[in-house]
Design a protein that fits this description.
The complex is a heterodimer.
Chain A (H helix, E strand, L loop, with lengths): L2 H6 L4 H16 L4 E2 L4 H4 L1 H13 L2 E6 L3 E6 L1 H10 L6 H20 L14 E2 H7 L7 H10 L3 E3 L6 H5 L2 E4 L8 H15 L4 H9 L18
Antiparallel strand pairs in A: 1-3, 2-3, 4-6, 5-6
Helix pairs in contact in A: 2-4, 6-8
Chain B lengths: L4 H12 L2 E3 L9 E5 L6 E5 L9 H5 L9 H15 L13 E2 H12 L4 H17 L3 E4 L4 E4 L8 H13 L8
Antiparallel strand pairs in B: 1-3, 2-3, 4-6, 5-6
Helix pairs in contact in B: 3-4, 3-5
Classes of the chains: A mainly alpha, B alpha+beta.
């Protein structure tokens, strides 16, 4: 009996198919899926079965903007993976991603141009901006951007008017950033504050709030803060 | 930390692609074990039910993961398949290793005229992308290509389409 069979054993055939279709849509799809499109997303009962399936496989439902859904790592699973050092991205790729996040999200947010806690944004970061201020080897930035694009962590910004031809290509955070759970989004924000302004009162407050031991936030198959 | 084994193995695959483990290592629930030809290691691959596979996206009209240079990537994968899958009537995994130059030869034959330097750059870019995703295994030092563990996830229907494609492609030149 597969994992899928054992989780979905009690469901009738129709609900089982709906759960599997939604699983495929969230896990393999590029963008979050509108709730209205799939029964397993709109119907809270079937959605709970979808969440049980995802949970069994180390994943969880993530709500995006009130009307869409995607899937991401469970917070406890992500902590375990991080502890093992299991990551697909090299140091340089992660550094380039952070630069894009700083330019496209953190700076606009601090200026009040971006609201909410999402790590996606419509503020492009030009390649020129990435290469001009960075301490990373210039030749490594483009290959890193290519790899990050393949992973959906960055995407090419749509050209707007004449600026694209003048400034060269620009990047935005990619659709994979939607997959961050609420605690993961918050952790990323805290890490950036700790890195960028370690002596600020905000950083002190973040350190004070952190438990001495590694976080042991428990999740259950029945739900998380998003469901 | 109270994360069970099944969740962790599936998550590792999600985070970093097919996992290579010791032959006597893990037996995670719901995963296929692909033994290396010399039995030195085992690849773990999730087993998805038919209606939870990526092709469901087409039926739902949803976009999948974006691939850079999709045409060249597909052609290089086809060329690797033509060179490594020497017995196309048999299983696609593990197949046999092939020199990258042989793959480039088939790629050249199916892409038409292109200057040689651009052709090599396109083939190299594509084989690296394919290796990054686990579709092929590419040793840059010895310039040898093998099919990656992910090809074992192809369904019987997909394999029969690929067999037809295989037959329609030019044969690789014998290695000296």
């Amino acid at each position: 009996m597969t994992v899928f069979d054992s989780v979905l054993a009690d469901l009738n055939e129709r609900h089982r198919d709906e759960v599997l279709a939604a699983f495929a849509a969230l896990e393999h799809g590029r963008e979050p899926v509108p709730e209205a499109q799939l029964l397993a997303l709109r119907d809270a009962t079937v959605r709970r079965d979808l969440q049980r399936l995802l949970y069994r496989l180390g994943r969880t439902l993530v709500r995006v903007g009130g009307t869409h859904w995607t899937s991401g790592f469970r917070d406890d699973v992500m902590a375990a993976l991080a502890a093992e050092g299991a990551t697909a991205q090299s140091r340089i790729d992660r550094a380039v991603l952070v630069l894009v996040l700083v330019h496209s999200v953190a700076i606009p947010r601090s200026q009040g141009l971006v609201s909410g806690d999402s790590w996606t944004s419509a503020h492009p970061t030009s390649v020129d901006e990435l290469t001009r201020y960075t301490q990373l080897p210039r030749g490594e930035i483009r290959p890193a951007l290519q790899r990050l694009r393949a992973a959906g962590l960055v995407q090419i910004a749509p050209p707007r008017g004449r600026s694209a031809s003048v400034d060269g290509p620009a990047y935005l955070p990619g659709p994979a950033l939607h997959r961050l759970t609420k605690p993961a989004r918050e952790r990323l924000e805290h890490e950036l504050i700790l890195a960028a302004a370690p002596d600020s009162p905000l950083a002190a407050a973040i350190r004070a709030r952190r438990p001495a031991a590694p976080a042991t936030t428990s999740t259950t198959p029945e739900g998380n803060e998003d469901t | 930390m109270n994360v069970d084994d099944t969740a962790l193995w599936w998550a590792r695959h999600r985070a970093a692609g097919p996992q290579r483990v010791e032959p006597a290592g893990a037996h995670p629930t719901g995963m296929i074990r692909l033994v290396e030809p010399d039995a030195s290691a085992v690849w773990l691959l999730p087993e998805l039910p038919d209606n939870a596979r990526p092709d469901v996206l087409d039926e739902l009209g949803l976009a999948g993961v974006a691939v850079d240079q999709p045409n060249d990537s597909a052609r290089v994968l086809a060329a690797c398949l033509r060179c490594c899958w020497t017995e196309s009537t048999g299983p696609v995994w593990p197949a046999t290793p092939a020199p990258f130059d042989q793959v480039i030869g088939v790629f050249r034959a199916i892409t038409g005229s292109r200057d040689e330097r651009a052709l090599h750059a396109a083939a190299m870019g594509a084989v690296r992308r394919l290796a990054g995703a686990g579709w092929v295994l590419f040793d840059e030092d010895t310039r040898v290509v093998r099919l990656g563990p992910r090809v074992a996830s192809w369904s019987a229907a997909e394999l029969s389409t690929l067999r037809e494609l295989w037959r329609s492609m030019p044969a690789p030149e014998p290695t000296s």
